[in-house]
Design brief:
Helices cover about 10% and strands about 40% of the residues. It is mainly beta.
Length: about 90
């Protein structure tokens, strides 16, 4: 119901995949941040994320952001129906 909406959430990292992609909300939501973070994320680290809620459509997101997310991240079938926040701003809390 939030697709296309700008949101701000505060959540803890549940799976730090890399400096540009991670999961929050116990794996229920992915965050994609094209600028990445300057240092690694830790599981449980609290963040404030502002961005647009989108279906997790790899090629569309990569093309729009001008990035290439590692292929192995998208090999899992569970990603088919997942949701992402394409972040405009991320702050460590």
């Amino acid at each position: 119901r939030f697709f296309g909406e700008q949101v701000t959430i505060e959540a803890r990292v549940s799976n730090p995949i890399d400096h540009r992609v991670w999961e929050v909300a116990d794996g229920k939501l992915f965050v994609i941040y094209d600028r990445g973070l300057d240092r690694g994320l830790r599981e449980g680290e609290p963040l404030r994320v502002t961005g647009e809620v989108r279906p997790l459509e790899r090629r569309v997101i990569e093309d729009e952001l001008g990035i290439d997310i590692e292929d192995h991240f998208f090999d899992e079938p569970f990603l088919d129906d997942d949701v992402a926040v394409v972040a405009k701003d991320v702050a460590r809390l």
